[in-house]
Amino acid sequence: MMTKKPPVPAESQSPYPKAEAPHAGEGEALAVAKEMAEAAKRRMPSSRQIGMGAAIGVGSAAIVAGLLYWKGGRKERK
Asked: What are the C-alpha distances in Å from 72 to residues 4, 62, 66?
């Protein structure tokens, strides 16, 4: 059978394999990644916490706007 690739001399070939060998079972990194994903799910905020955060954000923005408006309505005293 003929190939279109020319032969490569042995001294020019890489000593490292082109593809990684298959791993047996579940690796340590995969187990740690799964554990971290489960921990992230437990830390997700509930809808009640999101609602409270939004209410606090809107309330503080209203207070700041009120203070800016209140200070802006004064006339300068000379």
From this structure: 81, 15, 10
